[in-house]
Amino acid sequence: MDRARGAFAAGRTLSAWGAPVFDAQLVRNRHGPVGRWIMEWKCDECLFSETGGVSSACGCRACPSTASNASSRAATPRQLNDISRNTGGRLSPLRGRVGEEYRGLRRLRLTPPNPPRGERITPVNNDPSIVVARQNNALQIFALDDAAARLGLEIGLPLANARAICPQLRVFDADEASDARTLNDIADWCDRFTPLVALDSPHGLFLDITGCAHLFGGEAAMMRLMCDVLTAQGFAVSAAIAGTSVCARTMTRHVHGRIVRDGEEAEAVRAAAGVRARRRQRPSPAACAAPG
Amino acid sequence: MATPARLGRVALGHADADATLQGGLAVAAMHEVFTDAGRQSAAATGFVAGLARRVAARRPLVWVRQDFTEIESGALSMSGLAELGLDPRLLVTVRAADVDTALRTAADALACDALGAVVLEVWGKRGSSISSPAAS
C-alpha cells in the first residue's frame, strides 16, 4: 500500500477544445515494462481511451485547465496599475526592464466561444485569422495571426479590404475586456520574476528586473524562460530588455529578444527605426488593394 | 505484501496502457504523477482526477493539497471537476500549510476504509502529485 508502484510523468494537454487529451509517460513500473501513450479522457463515460476513436468528440469543454482556475492573487498588480496610470503608463527610466508585448490575443481565445458540439477546433489551422473591432464606424483589423501578417494584412486595415485580399479569412470579434483580463492574469504570473510589474495597455507589460535576473540565470535566460512559457500557452510574444522602459518598448515593436546594453539605447532605437523605414518603403499587398 | 496477481486492478480504458500495466491501475497501491517543472500542473490535476475517478467510482475522494500548490497553479474548480465527470459532492479537499502536514493528513486519510482514493498534491523539487487509492 505504501510503496510506489508506478510513476507517470509529463501529463501535457494537447487539445484546446473537446475532450482533454494527455501525453502520459509511464516512467517507472515495478512489475513490468514502461511506455508512453496519448490518452483521451472521455468525460461522459469517465474512461480513458485512445485518441481519434469513433466517439472521440465528446463535445465536453472541460480542458484540464478548467480544473484549476487561476487563484485571485494579492493586490500587487492593481497597485502597479495605479503606478502606471499615475505616470501616464510610463515608469521613470530605471535600469533593466523587460518590455514585454504580446500581439493579438491568446490563440485559444480566437476560437468562437461556443464551438458546435462534436466539432474539434485545434489551434493548428493554416487559414489566416483576424480579430476585428469597430473603429471610426468601420470594422478594422484589431489583431492578426502570423498567417494573416504574411499575406500583407496589417492592423488598422478595413475588414472589406482584408476580405478582398484573402476571401478565406477567419474573422472574430474583438473582446477588449477579456484581453485586459488576460493581460492582468499574465501580469499576475510575472510576479514570480519580479515584484515590479506594470501594465502597458493594451498589449504590453513592463517588468523592472533590476537585481532579479541573476536568480533566473541572467537576463537572456530569464527572457527565454518567460517567452517559452508564454509561447507554449499560445501567446505570440515579443520581448526586449533595455535600460529605459521606452527603449525596451520600442525594441519589442521591431526585434524580438533584443537585449540593449547600458548606454546604447539611443543607437539601438535609431537602428530599429531604420529597419522600420526600410520595411515601409516596400509596398504591401494591402496598400495595393486600397481603393483609390 | 500481496503479489501483483492477487491485487485488484482497475482498467483505465486505454488498451495499450492497460496491457502494459497488466490489466490496469493497481488499487490499494500508491501511484505517482510528475509534471515538467510545474508548468503543466493543471494537466496533472486533470490526469489525476481521471485516475481517481476510475479507481473510486462512487466513493468519497480526499484531495490533500499544499497551500503553495494553490498559489502556483490555482485552486481546484468544482465545476471543472464536474465537467470532467467527477461528483463534487464526493470530494473532500484539505489544504495543508506545508509538506509535513500534507503527508500526515494523507496518512490519516489512508486509514479510513470508507474512502475510494486519497490524492496528495505537494510542491517540491520534483513537483509531484500522488494518487493513492485506499484499500478496497
Overview of the structural elements:
The complex is a heterodimer of chains A (292) and B (136). Chain A is an alpha+beta fold and 292 residues long. Chain A folds into 3 domains: 6-66, no CATH class; 73-105 and 176-280, 2-Layer Sandwich (Alpha-Beta Plaits), CATH 3.30.70; 113-174, MutS, DNA mismatch repair protein, domain I, CATH 3.40.1170.60. Chain A has 9 helices and 13 strands. Chain A has helices at 64-67, 76-86, 146-150, 159-165, 176-190, 219-232, 245-254, 265-281, 285-289, and strands spanning 4-13, 21-29, 35-42, 47-50, 68-69, 97-102, 129-135, 138-144, 170-173, 197-200, 204-208, 237-242, 258-259. The radius of gyration of chain A is 22 Å and the shape is globular. The termini of chain A are far apart. Mean pLDDT of chain A is 68; it is low at 1-7, 9-16 and 53-124. With 136 residues, chain B is an alpha/beta fold. Chain B has one domain: 3-Layer(aba) Sandwich (Rossmann fold), CATH 3.40.50. Chain B has 5 helices and 8 strands; from the N terminus they run βαββαβαβαβαββ. Chain B has helices at residues 15-20, 41-55, 67-73, 78-84, 99-110; strands spanning 9-10, 25-26, 30-34, 61-66, 75-76, 91-96, 117-121, 128-132. In chain B, strands 3-8-7-4-6 form a 5-stranded mixed beta sheet, with helices on both faces. In chain B, strands 1-2 form a two-stranded antiparallel ribbon. Chain B is globular. Mean pLDDT of chain B is 81; it is low at 1-5 and 126-136. The interface between A and B is large, with 52 and 51 residues.
Annotation keywords:
heterodimer, A: 292 residues, alpha+beta, Alpha-Beta Plaits, MutS, DNA mismatch repair protein, domain I, 3 domains, five-stranded mixed sheet, four-stranded antiparallel sheet, 9 helices, 13 strands, disordered N terminus, B: 136 residues, alpha/beta, Rossmann fold, two-stranded antiparallel ribbon, 5 helices, 35% helix, 24% strand, disordered C terminus
